[in-house]
Amino acid sequence: MSAALLAGRYRVVEPIFGDVDRGLLRAVDLDGRRCLVSIVHHGRSPALPSVLAADRWRSPLVAPILDWRAEPEVYELLVEAEPPGRPSAWAPPLAPSQLREAALALARLLADSPPGVPGLRPELVYVDDGRLSGLAPRYTALWTKSMEGNTRAGLMAPFDVIYLSREEIRGLPLTRAHDASMLGTMIAFWSSGAPPYAHGGDESLVQFLLRVIQGAPRLADDGPFADVIAACLRADPLDELIARLRELPLDEADAAHAARARMIAEIVARPDDDGPRLVYADWLLERGDPRGEFIQVQCANAARPTVALAAREAELLEAHGQRWGAHLLPDAHEWHFARGFVASVARCDRAALARRAEALLAQGPLPGYSPTAT
Q: What is the DSSP secondary structure assignment for residue 343, as one 8-state letter?
């Protein structure tokens, strides 16, 4: 049925979520325009035309709708132009000053929109040449949800538990608090490669959801944006968050970002050589980062194992191992380190890791991938 809707109109490039029968697809239309196509089972909902006519998302940063059609009571097809650039989950990490510009653009868009913007996650926020270029898709699906006898209808973004807000988890209407927390989630991802509420294999889903409701993040990075992220997660007003972003001094952070990128690229290019790893370790130790000691300890223990080195390695992993691998989430939930960096991954989605390989290689070696392979 979905194949008939697509036939002769759109060439599917790849599924983003789901498949060609029910999911979100990247495609090209007859005029060669990059598109996002959503094919969704929706039952008997008549609401799509009124949703498409809504004013809430009219913005230069939001992808325009090109076309839509519905097959009664079974499928809806929604097509939107794809913003320029790449999904931010796939792009190399932004420099701090670029991150601020993208975050300010997103914060202003949120401030100018009605409260409760759904679906903000890195795969659906696009960056182009270090700048926020757009959000897509505007509308992914219609949903109805029964909660304590009350049925509500609204818009559904692709489900990913690590990008839920407190309101979404509790089934409450989305407010400015939700928008602020989603802004914090995006800033955290852009600054570290990991969302603030990283859900790894060391806790149950229930424990994780309770931690989000209680506001207990596991920040993967405590860099220049840590205070802004914390303010977002506690739902400070958007105008205050915008002011905080503007006031951040980032010259030193930009220089550190560039230096780190050079050192990581050298480590990735020379995976069997401890030299670049130990240079990076010294640089981290000068900044008080325990990752530097971890790299030194693992390199030393690999060359000449001792009980003392193994014990210290275990202590550092217990304290920081989940954070140091959190950039692999949500596509891998188990990883192991060797000589200071991830050396193997398990419980993972290999195809998803491959799409993000360029961004992940900016965090260090990625097992099975190399710069030439991407």
A: E
Q: E strands, 99-188, where? A: 125-128, 131-135, 141-147, 150-156
Contact 188, 221 (CB under 8 A): yes
Residues 6+ away with beta carbon under 8 Å from 338 = 298, 302, 344
What does the DSSP 8-state code read for residue 123?
G
Per-residue pLDDT tens digits for 136-183: 876 544 444 444 444 444 444 445 778 888 998 888 888 999 999 999
- Which domains, ranges and CATH numbers included, belong to the chain? 2-81 (3.30.200.20), 86-249 (1.10.510.10), 253-361 (no CATH)
DSSP secondary structure, 88-120, as one string: TTTSPPPPHHHHHHHHHHHHHHHHHS-S-----
Q: What backbone phi and psi angles, to 5 degrees, belong to 153? A: -120, 145
pLDDT the model gives residue 256: 95
Say if residues 220 and 198 touch (Cβ distance below 8 Å).
Answer: yes
Please tell me the distance from the alpha carbon of residue 294 to that of residue 325, in angstroms, as a whole number. 13
Q: If you search the block for the tokens 């915008």, which residue do you land on?
A: 242
Compute the distance between CA of residue 318 and CA of residue 321 in angstroms, rounded to an integer.
6
Of 138, 123, 247, the closest CA to residue 195 belongs to: 123
28-31-32 Cα angle (round to 5): 40
